[in-house]
Amino acid sequence: MAKQQDKANADIKDMSFEQALKELEQIVGRLERGDVELEQSIAIYERGEALRDHCDRLLQRAEAKVEKINLSEDGQPTGTQPLDVE
């Protein structure tokens, strides 16, 4: 079943953060309304988990690219250094 689910979610890896987040929001809305049958609820929940993981990976990559601007005492930019995300 895991391989079947991987195939069903193969398109996620090509999604932008915004696309994945939008679909994830739609899934959450459907699950909150409770208007889907149990089997379908499980399937879309699993897709939601895959979308959440994808969004998390994309955010981690973005955070790794962010840099902190160093300023001199008079407030002028003097360079950059990696952002400490911890």
UniProtKB/TrEMBL annotation:
<protein>
    <recommendedName>
        <fullName>Exodeoxyribonuclease 7 small subunit</fullName>
        <ecNumber>3.1.11.6</ecNumber>
    </recommendedName>
</protein>
<keyword id="KW-0269">Exonuclease</keyword>
<keyword id="KW-0378">Hydrolase</keyword>
<dbReference type="GO" id="GO:0006308">
    <property type="term" value="P:DNA catabolic process"/>
</dbReference>
<comment type="similarity">
    <text>Belongs to the XseB family.</text>
</comment>
<keyword id="KW-0963">Cytoplasm</keyword>
<dbReference type="GO" id="GO:0005829">
    <property type="term" value="C:cytosol"/>
</dbReference>
<dbReference type="Pfam" id="PF02609">
    <property type="entry name" value="Exonuc_VII_S"/>
</dbReference>
<comment type="function">
    <text>Bidirectionally degrades single-stranded DNA into large acid-insoluble oligonucleotides, which are then degraded further into small acid-soluble oligonucleotides.</text>
</comment>
<dbReference type="InterPro" id="IPR037004">
    <property type="entry name" value="Exonuc_VII_ssu_sf"/>
</dbReference>
<keyword id="KW-0540">Nuclease</keyword>
<dbReference type="InterPro" id="IPR003761">
    <property type="entry name" value="Exonuc_VII_S"/>
</dbReference>
<dbReference type="GO" id="GO:0009318">
    <property type="term" value="C:exodeoxyribonuclease VII complex"/>
</dbReference>
<dbReference type="GO" id="GO:0008855">
    <property type="term" value="F:exodeoxyribonuclease VII activity"/>
</dbReference>
<comment type="subunit">
    <text>Heterooligomer composed of large and small subunits.</text>
</comment>
